[in-house]
What we know:
With 461 residues, the chain is of the alpha/beta class. It contains 16 helices and 21 strands. The protein has helices at residues 31-39, 44-53, 69-78, 82-85, 101-106, 144-159, 167-180, 186-197, 203-223, 234-242, 266-284, 313-319, 342-353, 399-402, 437-444, 452-460; strands spanning 3-8, 11-16, 21-26, 56-59, 112-115, 129-131, 227-232, 289-293, 297-300, 306-310, 326-329, 334-338, 355-357, 364-368, 372-377, 389-391, 394-396, 403-408, 411-414, 417-421, 431-433. The strands form six sheets. An eight-stranded mixed sheet has the order 6-5-7-3-8-20-4-21, sandwiched between helices. β16 and β17 (394-396) form a beta hairpin. α9 packs parallel to α11.
Amino acid sequence: MPFTRLKLGGWLWTQMKPMTVLLLALNEVNFDHVRSYVADGKLPVLGRLIADHGVTETVSERNYEELEPWIQWVTAQTGMALAEHGVFRLGDIVRTDIPQIWETLESQGLVVGAISPMNARNRCRAPAFFLPDPWTDTPVTGSWLMQKFYKAIARSVNENATSKVTASSAFWLAVGMAAYARPANYPRYASLVMSALRGKSWAKALVLDQVLADIFVSQARRGRVDFASLFLNAAAHIQHHYMFNSSAYDGPQVNPAWYISPQDDPVLEVYEIYDAIVGQVRVRFPEARLLLATGLHQDPHPETTFYWRLRDHASFLERIGVSAKRVHPLMSRDFVADFADADAASAAQRRLATVLGEDGSPLFEVDNRGSDLFVMLTWPHDIPSDFKYFVDGAPRFGLREDVAFVAVKNGRHNGTGYLLDTGLSGARNDTMPLADLPARIAEACGASWPGDAELRMDSAA
């Protein structure tokens, strides 16, 4: 652990400085696939880190419906399992006052920062920086430009399925890219932009993760952080959509050629970006302790499932007889609709329950939370131009014009995650609860985590 020397009152004092600890959250990355690529001579940085430090498996929830990144990352950030924190939906962390890793360390005098942490609330007093994820309504801590850039990112992420980006969003994205993209990565940005222009839509997610990493490196260095986290989501997005194209996948499923060329391997592309990002962080912070965590991982999905997203949520709801005060689009097929009161929300829930496909299956799944509804467009099949559906028994047409195709589902969640800690050395084959991650981070920072004393007393007893 490094030291600083202070001269006070003529005396020279030696003060222990906390080690810089950086959490790189590589959401849902499958380390078995990483090892497969490493065996093929790819991903040199990750391959070396695995060889030098080993990989620990993390465990969390068991029920499949509870295996969602916005649940597991709350666990990783609070030290509480779902049964304790109770946060089941993306963005719902703002409804709670659960202590998270950032404000807990900050209360002990450490300087903290965060870039895009999933389902995290900015409750810090004075973080070096805090850029929320695009779906969580919590304050941004950063410059005026960073706040403008964040709003443009959030709008663009939520408009991605419809390929609709407003002129304002495009302007601030361009300004933010010019300000935050590292010159050393210009060739990579140029290559990704060309890929996106050639129809490889996943390249847009890679651009976003690269610029978030560039912001993280610059802000963490400028802010002289003791602990900072970076959350990257492109791998999760790409695996859900294109895992069958990965050379690490050896199953029977094949994506249709109209969906993606058989020669493309987007999973390798995103893993190579992450390999480069981790390498750049290592170079820029050579003394830092790095923790690479995935929260959970993805396995191949066993069947063909389509994902759809409403193009204009509020307009569609109005046309089927649901009047919401406000609609908040979330990831892909999900959205939240706010109502005047619980009675209005219940009436809307009943109305949505009558929206059925021709085979009688519901188009939507609804979670009533009082005066708002969390809604998922769960229809898993194709929606052709002549698709007929029903609202309260009356036939309707034109749904294909109301939805945007998102993806053919390729990956499904698995509750096992992975943790690589450069503070440890040698091969390992161990497991730990994901809820232990904040305590591991606090210990690495030379700080305490709530419950440490109780755990020590229990151990002594």
